[in-house]
Design a protein that fits this description.
This protein is mainly α. Helix content is 43%, strand content 10%. It has six helices and three strands.
Length: 120
């Protein structure tokens, strides 16, 4: 592969740690090549622990760059993604909000965020 393409698709922080994305934390992360822990899991080894501590406060998530209204919309979209996947797993053609609530698949935060759908 072309070196410039390789470096573009295999970006590293400090030219040492591969940069990735944690879909649970919704933030950029780095992975230690020695112990394979990531900056979001709280682990580490002698080689990466100090670097992970330095990486942690860096602006690595979308919310760092959004105002309050944009953050609410972004978080709502992330919650919708999970709820849609849960609905598909139940073989619903669309979100059945009442059943999701009845089955305990909505958090209190979900119920507040999507109140307009639950009130229909």
């Amino acid at each position: 592969m072309n070196d410039s393409l390789y470096s573009f698709f295999n970006r590293k922080w400090r030219n040492k740690y591969p940069i990735g994305w944690c879909h649970h934390c919704n933030r950029a992360i780095i992975e230690c090549p020695a112990c394979h822990n990531t900056s979001c899991n709280g682990g580490g080894c002698n080689e990466c622990y100090d670097d992970f501590s330095e990486f942690f406060p860096i602006f690595t998530c979308a919310e760092h760059y959004l105002d309050d209204n944009e953050t609410k919309a972004y978080q709502k979209g992330l919650r919708l993604r999970r709820i849609i996947q849960d609905s598909l797993a139940l073989e619903h053609p669309s979100i059945n909000w009442r059943q999701m609530k009845r089955d305990g698949l909505l958090s209190q935060n979900d119920e507040e965020m999507f109140k307009e759908f639950l009130d229909e």
